[in-house]
Specification:
The complex is a heterodimer. By secondary structure, chain A is of the alpha+beta class. Chain A has four domains: 12-73 and 480-555; 114-137 and 168-473, 2-Layer Sandwich (Beta-Lactamase); 569-648; 661-826, Heat Shock Protein 90, CATH 3.30.565.10. Helices cover 44% and strands 16% of the residues of chain A. Chain A has helices at residues 14-113, 118-127, 219-222, 298-305, 361-370, 374-380, 395-400, 415-422, 470-473, 475-555, 569-617, 626-656, 669-686, 706-722, 772-775, 781-791, and strands at 129-133, 171-175, 177-183, 189-194, 197-198, 231-232, 244-247, 250-253, 273-281, 287-296, 325-330, 335-337, 347-348, 353-354, 428-435, 438-447, 462-469, 664-667, 690-693, 702-705, 729-737, 740-747, 795-799, 819-826. A six-stranded antiparallel beta sheet of chain A has the order 5-4-3-10-9-6. In chain A, strands 12-11-17-16-15 form a five-stranded antiparallel beta sheet. Chain B is built from five helices and five strands. The longest helix of chain B is centred in the N-terminal third of the chain and has 13 residues, at 13-25. Chain B is globular, with a radius of gyration of 13 Å. The chains are: A alpha+beta, B alpha/beta.
Chain lengths: 830, 123
């Protein structure tokens, strides 16, 4: 590609033009297509994703809604079912207790029908036993692990097969009755069997002090009993103390407290009795006395101490702390059975006085101001007054450890009112209460035992209540809810992740698509660029070679041949160029030869003429007379003129054919100016001209062909001499200007018309129509001069009139304007 | 040195004939040749005292003849005057570099030729 450096193109070449055009044509549509496609795809893809996400969100929302309804419904259903189930258990329990109590009625009636006999009482004692679940020792010894529940055998039974193996609680056989007595009509014990032994310690039980806990006053009621009528006492037993203390989990039972089930399994248990009494008649039908039985209250407590509303159904120890336990109240709303034995109402065995029920701090403060005993104050308190959950229990009572629960005055527990109200008609029911930071379901059922004083109200013996943690029997629903929620969450996450995946996928696909499009674009651009460069090279390369060839030809190197092998238009152009170059070259060759041949052919006959005439004129052909001399002189002049003309013509043709060879060398300026002046001196003198040579001697040498420059200067001087009237002045000056020497040849002759300043250099131009014969010029001198100067890389100008200052002394008028020729030649740089 | 024998070489018969006539009349012995080969033959045959040599000739041109003459022991000291219609400076230089003692441009008058010949006599 180095060869192309000499061929400079101004503006944009073909290669860039073609490459850009091809690139634009091929890439613009690609870009357009790619952009619109990408845009559409992107919008479509993102729209799709958005819709999928919206759909997923909607689905999730509706699933959540469904889930919520399902859970709420199931919770409600479960609640209802569980509540129903617990209520049923409560009612069944109440019925069982009533049944047990009625059976005791039977017992005493049987006993009363027989004549009082200690042995019989002993036997009855011995054979009246009932199993209770053994809660001590605690914890129990290791029991072997239970085998897995029985599975179905017949596949037709497998649907919802549930199986519970039987409870295998350790049981202790306990006597039903603590005491059997026969008392006379005055209240004196006649026979007493106590805890399986005939007791000699017979007391007069008409005096309370002689009774159990000094608290029994049943004798008062006996007198009015008719045959078959039964007196049943309330639960009487010594009160056992207990303390509640704050613990990290909430409330805990202090270890020195009474027995409290799981909360304090080692504590002292409440031991109470319920006394039956009925009259005994002798053979005459006269009241002989009364038989009494003291039922060990443990058997009544047994009904509630192990029943739990949870899946367990029954447990060895009840746990008040769990909120799932059963307890019992008598018809006076006093607690007669509770996991915490210190809540059971009891008596002070020292005084026989009832231990007052636990009241709120506020009411206790009122007691403090009352001046009454606590027992009296409590006795006087209005029932079920101002009950509220927000009231704290009395601290003093709590610290004393005497905190039995008497619903009537327990104004910190409004549920007492609820039970009291609900059992009013002997019925059952349930309600929810927010107790100890948890929602509790509490059920109640009146115990339908109406014997004796218990027949005073429809409430009967009292009511049994079961407390259940709502949360616990929501468990199934809670588990379902959790499952549903987790399922929904998983679904949600699935949807999210799958839409995320889809988004990533689509975005990835879009990006890949875009990258692909860009890649294709780039590759196409490269291919197109490459191809278009290759194609355009096929055009530009031969064109460049043609141009180079033409330029070279223009510079004179005529032997050009372009090597182009193609047969297309370019090939045709190259072929034509080659043919043209060949003919030009041939022509040029012919021109050279013509000049050479012509110069020889012209000079030879002239030479012959000159030889002979000069010989004759010099007398080498014999003596000649004056007339012959004069006549031959004309011929000799003609020959000389012809010779000059031939020389000029040959010079001119060489200059025009650019065949002139300059012998370039450093040439001293002053010297050649002198030489030229010398050559025209005679001619100048013959016209009485003065030549003033003002060329300094210290100018730079010029790079020139010495003889040719002298020839130019001679031409200019001759010209000036011819075109100046006699007695004229010629001035020659020279000076350096940058890298050139400027020569000035001025004369004060006729000058040249303005319009002719350029034409003066043309062939055979004669100003003012002065013929060559008069001035003796050929009209070629200036043409040759210009050819030589320009061939040296300089320039020559003519100016007329002469500028002021050149000929200050000599007047110049219209007829004589003078003329000045200036030419520049490069200085020789060593 | 007196010049007796002159060899005139020119492909124009008329010119060499004229020079022959004039120089013979002046007392010289003149030999002529019309081409380069003939010129060499004549030179080695007659051993002239001076040679007038045209450049443009058939068969062998003047420059070649000149070179051969100047490289031969027998003829290298013979003065040779080149006479040619070729007047460009490079042609003149070529001729002088080839060994020519003088280079004269045609057309030129007879008296000038004679003067050049006489110049060598006085040496």
């Amino acid at each position: 590609m180095d060869k192309n450096k000499d061929v400079k193109i101004r503006g944009i070449g073909i290669i860039p033009k073609l490459v850009i055009s091809f690139l634009v044509l091929s890439c613009v549509p690609l870009i357009f297509i790619g952009y619109t496609t990408d845009k559409n795809l992107r919008e479509t893809g993102l729209e799709t994703i958005q819709r999928a996400e919206e759909m997923g969100a909607k689905n999730l929302m509706s699933a959540k809604g469904i889930g919520r309804f399902a859970v709420e419904d199931s919770v409600r259903a479960l609640d209802e079912k569980a509540t129903e189930a617990i209520e049923v258990r409560t009612v069944d329990l109440a019925l069982r207790i009533a049944g047990f109590l009625y059976e005791r009625n039977q017992d005493i009636l049987v006993l009363a029908s027989l004549p009082p006999d200690p042995q019989m009482y002993l036997n009855v004692y011995r054979f009246s036993n009932r199993d209770v679940i053994a809660s001590r020792p605690w914890p129990p010894e290791e029991t072997p692990p239970q085998p897995p529940p029985l599975q179905w055998k017949n596949p037709e039974n497998r649907a919802s097969w549930r199986h519970h193996p039987p409870h295998d609680f350790r049981k202790i056989r306990k006597p039903l009755y603590r005491e059997f007595t026969f008392i006379d009509l005055k209240g004196r014990e006649r026979i007493k069997v106590s805890d399986g032994r005939l007791s000699k310690d017979l007391k007069d039980i008409s005096d309370k002090k002689n009774t159990f806990c000094k608290a029994e006053d049943y004798f008062l009621n006996l007198g009015s009993l008719k045959r078959g009528e039964i007196y049943v006492s309330r639960v009487i037993g010594p009160y056992v103390k207990g303390w509640l203390q704050k613990s990290p989990k909430g409330v805990a039972v202090a270890p020195e407290s009474a027995y409290a089930g799981k909360e304090n399994p080692e504590g002292e248990a409440f031991r109470g009795i319920v006394r039956w009494a009925t009259p005994v008649f002798d053979g005459r039908g006269e009241k002989a006395g009364y038989v009494t039985m003291a039922l060990d209250h443990i058997h009544i407590m047994e009904f509630t101490d192990h029943l739990v509303p949870t899946q367990e159904r029954y447990s060895v120890l009840s746990d008040a702390g769990s909120g799932n336990y059963t307890f019992m109240w008598d018809d006076q709303d006093q607690c007669i059975s509770h996991p915490r034995d210190f809540f059971i109402c009891g008596y002070d065995p020292a005084t026989g006085e009832e231990v007052p029920g636990w009241i709120s701090e506020a009411i206790y403060n009122k007691f403090m101001k009352s001046g009454l005993s606590l027992a009296e104050f409590v006795r006087r308190l209005p029932s079920f007054n101002g009950f509220s959950l927000k009231k704290p229990g009395s601290r003093r009572q709590g610290e004393s450890g005497c905190i039995p629960l008497n619903c009537r005055v327990l104004d910190t527990a409004p549920q007492c009112r609820g039970w009291h109200r609900g059992s009013e008609d002997g019925g059952s029911g349930s309600f929810l209460i927010y107790w100890s930071g948890l929602w509790k379901l509490t059920t109640y059922a009146a115990i339908p035992y109406y014997t004796g004083l218990y027949g005073n109200s429809k409430r009967g013996f009292g009511y049994v209540t079961i407390g259940a943690n709502v949360a616990d029997f929501h468990k199934a629903a809670a588990i379902t809810k959790q499952k549903i929620e987790r399922n929904i969450q998983v679904q949600g996450e699935d949807i999210k992740s799958s839409t995320e995946e889809s988004r990533v996928f689509i975005v990835g696909a879009l990006t890949r698509n875009r990258n692909l499009a860009i890649g294709i674009l780039i590759i196409s651009a490269l291919v197109v660029a490459g191809a278009s460069v290759a194609i355009s090279l096929k055009i530009t390369d031969p064109l460049r070679r043609l141009t180079r060839g033409a330029v070279a030809m223009g510079k004179g190197d005529l032997h050009q041949s372009i090597n182009v092998k193609s047969t297309d238009e370019i090939g045709l152009l190259a072929k034509s160029f080659n043919e043209m170059a060949a003919s030009v070259s041939e022509l040029d060759q012919m021109k050279s030869e013509f000049v050479t041949i012509t110069s020889h052919e012209l000079r030879t006959p002239i030479h012959a003429m000159l030889l002979s005439i000069s010989g004759v004129l010099e007398g080498y052909s014999g003596e000649i007379n004056e007339e012959v001399r004069e006549d031959l002189g004309l011929a000799k002049d003609g020959i000389e003129r012809l010779t000059r003309l031939v020389e000029n013509l040959l010079d001119l043709s060489r200059i025009e054919a650019k065949k002139i060879d300059f012998n370039m060398a450093p040439v001293p300026v002053a010297e050649i100016v002198d030489k030229a002046v010398q050559e025209v001196l005679l001619l100048a003198r013959s016209h009485h001209h003065v030549i003033m040579n003002h060329v300094p001697g210290d100018l730079h040498d010029i790079n020139a062909d010495r003889d040719r420059i002298i020839q130019v200067m001679v031409n200019l001087l001759s010209n000036s001499i011819k075109y100046t009237p006699d007695g004229g002045t010629l001035i020659i000056e020279a000076e350096t200007e940058e890298d050139k020497v400027i020569f000035s040849f001025a004369d004060n002759g006729f000058g040249i018309p303005e319009s002719a300043a350029e034409k003066v250099f043309e062939e055979f131009f004669q100003a003012d129509k002065i013929t060559s014969r008069e001035v003796g010029g050929s009209g070629l001198g200036l043409t040759i001069a210009r050819g030589i100067i320009e061939g040296h890389g300089g320039n020559i100008l003519c100016e007329s009139p002469v500028p002021k200052g050149w000929f200050p002394d000599l007047p110049l008028d219209k007829k004589r304007k003078g003329s000045i020729f200036t030419f520049r030649l490069p200085i020789h740089i060593a | 040195m007196r010049i007796r024998k002159i060899l005139v070489v020119d492909d124009e018969k008329a010119i060499s004939a004229y020079l022959d006539r004039k120089l013979t009349r002046l007392g010289h012995i003149v030999f002529t040749a019309e081409d380069g080969e003939e010129a060499l033959r004549q030179a080695f045959l007659h051993f002239p005292d001076i040679i007038l040599l045209d450049v443009r000739m058939p068969k062998l041109n003047g420059i070649e003849v000149l070179k051969r003459l100047k490289s031969d022991e027998r003829t290298k000291d013979v003065p040779v005057i080149l006479l040619s219609a070729k007047a460009q400076s490079n042609e003149i230089t070529a001729g002088l570099e080839a060994g020519a003692d003088r280079y004269l441009c045609k057309p030129i008058g007879f008296p000038d030729i004679l003067r050049e010949i006489r110049a060598f006599e006085e040496e």
